Records
---
Amino acid sequence: MRKELGNKGEDIAARYLEEQGYKILKRNFRSRYGEIDIICSLAQSIIFVEVKTRTSTSFGFPEEAITKTKREHIRKVALEYLAAQSQPFNEIRFDVIGIRIEKNEPHINHLEAAF
């Protein structure tokens, strides 16, 4: 159930990013340090996106669920991804997309340069 919700949230986030002009480069990139949900680009920037999806705010907003440890893991995974790329980027950014799905309606909160 949680995995299904997470996948649904990532699909919603990917569509949202594409609608905003971002180009999706990779989804669910894994390394020994963990996973990055979405890697995308906009102009000369590469953006690593963590997506959190919830059906309520009983335990806080979804974007509040990203711990310091999770941020460190995302940074390490990003470095591994960048090391394997030949394309230069002018800017590297870490975004968070929080999605609340209430009554089957998604509410998107995109935090650019969140950490």
---
Amino acid sequence: MELSLNQLQTKNRKHRRRVGRGSGSGRGTYSGRGMKGQKSRSGANIRPGFEGGRMPLIRQVPKRRGFTSRYEKATVVNIGDLEKTYANNELVTPAKLAEKGFLKTANQYVKILGNGELRKTLTVEADAFSKSAKDAITKAGGAIRIRRSL
């Protein structure tokens, strides 16, 4: 079968409605701008958020201030907890802390704090130590290892 001109069909295209071209067009007279007012005039340029001079909503809502650090917050573990949980001469790592339930996952940022008393000799591996925790661990004969730093 051969294609000829009388067999060609066109798609019905939606035409852009021409505004302000007489009352028969459906968009004559005010051309969709309403009646009077600033927005009916030519050259009307009202910035976004302008509410006719009243206090705009964006200025009525209070500002939320504060600071959010880009660093992850350290999960803290006290040396008193290490004393209760671990045996003498044991290696304490973030993986073992996660097993015991001190951390959710082993790759969390861990800081050891000096609350409590430590009498056992422990080798503690963590991301950060407070000065009092360092002193308590070394005084008990243990050692500290820093895993990573911020």
